[in-house]
Fold:
Amino acid sequence: MDGLIILQPYARMILDGEKQYEYRKYKPPTDKINVPIYLISEKKVHGEIAIGDFKYNQIRHNWFWYIRILKKYKKPKSYNYKNGQQIWVKDVILDGED
Structure:
């Protein structure tokens, strides 16, 4: 499964249900729509989400990605972090899983 990196405090706000939209300058990749992806922040996996609908805001000139929470982890999990990952992480492997 792939992962999406979101900075704090926004990752926590999404998982706590305080924030339903992620704002980005581009559309989400079509292969990431309505499929489970990991929510990654601070080099840890905090849960599983899915990107639902997305819309362009002409006033703010950005995209609204609707985020659905699939699973919130009680304790963040380590994964195969590599330097240079900034937005998307391909083929995330949680530590202790193969």
Summary: Helices lie at 10-15. Strands lie at 3-5, 21-24, 37-41, 44-57, 62-77, 88-89. The longest helix spans residues 10-15.
